[in-house]
Specification:
five-stranded antiparallel sheet; 171 residues; alpha+beta
Length: 171
Amino acid sequence: MASLQPSPGSVPTVISSTLPEAPSTALLNRVEQDLNLEVDAIDIDSIDAPTIEPTRREPRTHKALDGTVYIEILVKKEKGKGRTGWYWQHGTEFEVQNRPKEGKNPRVWVCDKCKAFQSYLVGGSAHIVKHLKSHNLHEKQAPSQRISIAERLSQHTPAMVDDRPPGLALS
């Protein structure tokens, strides 16, 4: 690799690779001047602005006529399956507080569309989906996305299996 040597008697030129300011800053400064918005810069770290605390919301509660007490679940559990079904967009999770039997407190889905407290056990979704149909709410899934098992398997079948002559068995 050849190195560049200055010619005798010439003065070497120094080229700086740093810009006086970032191009975006230069553009913003130009716009500020054009619009006569020249304002003294503020050091953000020197401002004694109050910190905004996140607002905490208390969970909703409901007491049924039979004395059952429900409390809204605000903090989701870390373990287990998340609430990803489409019907969770239309309901809220509550937990029974005065459990009648031993074990975990049962959790229920409560319809957000109903004026009355309409709850369904979380164990399955068929009854929830049936209820949401009464509100004319349905799962939004395009028919083209639904593929039969046979079609799905044919997408992953190697070509050599499809190209074999009829009656030829694999050994």
